[in-house]
Amino acid sequence: MCGIVGYIGKKDSKRILLDGLKELEYRGYDSAGIAVLQGDNFSSFKATGKLINLEEKTKDFVTDKFSIGIGHTRWATHGKPTELNAHPHAGENSYVVHNGIIENYAELKKELLEDGVHFLSQTDTEVIVHQFEKNLKTSISAFEAFKITIEQLHGAYAILLVTKGEKETIFFAKNGSPMLMGIDSDNEKYFASSDTPLIGHCSDINYFEDGDYGYVSPDALVIFSQKNLQKEPVFTKLSTNKLSAQKDGYRFFMEKEIYEQHDVITDTLLGRLSEERVIFEEIESSLFDGINEIKLCACGTSYHSALTATYLFERYSKVKTSIEVASEFRYREPIMNKDTLFVVISQSGETADTLETLKMAKKAGLKTLVICNVDNSSMVRLADACILTRAGVEKGVASTKAFATQVTVFWMMSLYLAELKSSMAKEEIQKQIALIREIPASVRVSDAMHEHIKRLSKRYLHGHGFFFIGRDVFYPLALEGALKLKEISYLHAEGYPSGEMKHGPIALADPELFTIALLPEHKLYEKAKSNVEELSARDATICAISPLEFDKADDLIPINRCKDYMLEFFEMMVVVQILSLEISIRLGNDVDMPRNLAKSVTVE
């Protein structure tokens, strides 16, 4: 959520800022803005809604000489999504953009109001610029005022600030929210929340660490650490491959990403499978020495992939496994034993609640592992070890291929551990590896299947809700199916273990309750079928997803006959993704950017 860009140089800063913000659209936003300082004059533009609204406002604005500029896409946290609440926020002579949460903003705002400062917005961010200008009045330099301001802030932040008194300088600070800086061949400087906006502009980038602050000018780059010690930047080469942002003929990025699952899972498997074993060259087997338990911690879709992993680790690896919702785990004073491997899962590697649990585990002395899609993200840099999912850029807010690649990694990891723990015979591991190689074929979308779901979807646009039900690993898939539907269609949907229907939820059963029943041939089919029959007897409308015919179903979405329940899992995963997609499209929703949601949630 929320995106930051910044630029200092002689190029077309307006275009650089707007193009950079466009590359960050996938993070989710409800307003956007830029501020540019050319000479002694500030120009600032804000707009709610899509970036095209901001581009329209800036169409007559020209930047054809040296300037410094900052930009931001905002997802509302404090204050509604209005132009006044959009960034950049202004003081008398300064502008600021900020990602994160200033936890003590109310206290600082109260003092500033008592000093006669007038606030225009409801945001916590506006406090930063006014606090800076207050400190500027008693400081020997703008940088000292900025340093003092940062010391007075509590919370998570990535900040860029520009002020008229230093018209060739951008001040920056990073703590808990991602931010990096790049340079080009002309030694001009660029800032962004992720590396995507910098591709094509910069050759080298520096990732700021928590607590870093400083400033840049045309001939200076000054960085201080959290301990106020000056440090040198550590530049790494930036990829020159511009990641595709085109839909390639698909109606939505989400649709494209569902179809890409065949390719990205192939990438996920690349170099990690021999005929006899799973190979993770990026981790040392010693990571699991002395480990008697695995604790998985995640949010949202990543939580569902992790819940799937609990079945696989205990079934194949024979390792005690537990799972935690990151936002709850942070605050419940958990007992953390050093014989536990702490595994965090995140598509972005920046999910605030999950990142904080990782910091807790590190502080408690646990070994840590991150399953992530973004190299050099905060979690990747903090954890002891990392396995990248290789899903590529996922533009749609509702995750699809990230979930698929996470589950793929967990299946492989369960076999990797099974070999280490000698919990499975070699022959059985080899059989499982052969099955894993079939995942890409299992997620390939056929025209006939998609067309069938598209036609079927028109029957499921009303009613008072959906139950997605399944047993074993199909329970977390039911949770994920329900989440996908509610995210993009705004229809009420819940995921349940099939066996729990009789313990209360079945009271809701009637013809207007739509039940999406996951009925795999190879895992508890008769049990799950019996649970669905209970709902059918109460006249609930049943849509079965199964390789087998089911006479009690009002509708059937058939999948291919598979050799194993895990391949059925992946086939059903694609079905629930497409079903959610087609229902949402029929309802006229923006599938890629559903209301109230963001791609990368970097606040708690």
Describe this structure in words.
- With 604 residues, the chain is α/β, with parallel strands linked by helices.
- It has three domains: 3-237, 4-Layer Sandwich (Glutamine Phosphoribosylpyrophosphate, subunit 1, domain 1), CATH 3.60.20; 247-444, Glucose-6-phosphate isomerase like protein, domain 1 (Rossmann fold, 3-Layer(aba) Sandwich), CATH 3.40.50.10490; 445-593, Glucose-6-phosphate isomerase like protein, domain 1 (Rossmann fold).
- It contains 18 helices and 25 strands.
- The strands form four sheets. It has an eight-stranded antiparallel β-sheet with strand order 3-2-4-1-10-9-11-15, covered by helices on one side.
- The protein is globular, with a radius of gyration of 26 Å.
Total E-strand runs:
25
| First and last CA, distance | 11 Å
| Rg for CA atoms | 26 Å
Low-confidence sequence ranges: none
Question: Quick recap of the structure?
Answer:
With 604 residues, this protein is of the alpha/beta class.
Index terms:
604 residues; alpha/beta; Glutamine Phosphoribosylpyrophosphate, subunit 1, domain 1; Rossmann fold; 8-stranded antiparallel β-sheet; 7-stranded antiparallel β-sheet; 33% helix; 23% strand
